[in-house]
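Lab meeting prep.
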Amino acid sequence: MVKDMSKIVVAYDGSELSKKALERAINLAKQDEKVELNVITAILHPIASIYNYGAVDAAHEANLEAAREMMKEVEETLKAIPNKTETYIVEGHPAQKIEEFAKNNNADLIIMGSRGLGGLKELFLGSVSHHVVQKASCEVIIVK
């Protein structure tokens, strides 16, 4: 399976299932040093109004800092493999950003958890994983 791949994208949000997805991706990447592993996390930019602009700015900065800390932990984990690895923090709706990132970076595979840290749940899949499965231009593995 790995012989046909050059790039794997992992959608990561710090949830237990995203940690399992990262573990699965690392195990696949270990099979071939030529496989590149990209880990992406997406943060939503809070909606501002004329009444709460300063609070929105502070919330955005806090979200960004939390994402940086989370990705530092991921980078430490990735040091255990010889493959080329990169981590990315993007801003926007996670489902769209994951799909776009994979397409724009010629990913062969996306690995993600069936549910993330989102609040409301769909019947079988979380809304982000559901969107990515439907719209991705490459294969998707959903970890549960």
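Slide two material, second protein:
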Amino acid sequence: MTKPPLTLYLAAPRGFCAGVDRAIKIVEMAIQKWGAPVYVRHEIVHNKFVVDGLRDKGAVFVEELDECPADRPVIFSAHGVPKSVPAEAEHRNMVYVDATCPLVSKVHIEAQRHADAGLQIIMIGHRGHPETIGTMGQLPEGDVLLVETEADVTDVVVRDPARIAYVTQTTLSVDDTAGIVAALQARFPAIVGPHKEDICYATTNRQEAVKAIAPRAQAMLVVGAPNSSNSKRLVEVAARAGCSYSQLVQRATDIDWRALDGVRTMGLTAGASAPETLVSEVVDALADRFDLTVEPVETAVENVEFKVPRVLRQPA
């Protein structure tokens, strides 16, 4: 039987960012250095394939520090943790490695700097997301207020409208965040923003690639986990940019083929915590069903690399 034709617009950049790559290396190097098991507080990154692979190598994933024995190393996830977590680890004399993405750490430092200057912080982020919890946990309770939408800006109650600043989660929709920032600035003209955009380069670049593809694609597949904020944002961005159907899939086996019936142009990207092997898996699955033509769509070139902590590296 003749396969129907399909033009696949393959987004670039896509997949792993520097912070995710660094966090995974930290877990692998910790297992090599200290042997198994090595404990990891929360999923090191939001991707089941990655987490399962590290678990097979000897990582044990837990949600809280009290689930870790004091005599084994523990790693904090790329999303960052409240200050109380390393404080508890030190109290228990635990060996720990902080795999927080440096761009998330930048937001932590920024929030602390604003607080030291006497400013109350408003954080733009998703309630319950580990990055939001970690950032808000850098300061005493009440010093950081959370807003998720433009509507939240109307109701937020601050101590002094003339002495506030804002920070953001690094994995938000660029466009949504711009709207919330505009609402904050309209209500609080004196509000202080970050010196440099908090939304990370990888989130921004992946959204821009999707925007370039969406108007010419009948469907968009986003490889990523359902608990991955940046992956879910890519699905939303595709829909807003003109793609009539977008689907989040963890693996090729998750593709809803019935929804793709009759599709002749498709976009494909991957969230910042999704490995390239899963993208290749989806491409192979498409090639099995379609006469596939792949057209790369590159909107940026990434060459960012973050060093792993010195405790895991050999002395120079």
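Talking points for slide two:
Residues 18-34 form the longest helix (17 residues).
The domain at 18-101 is CATH 3.40.50.11270 (Rossmann fold).
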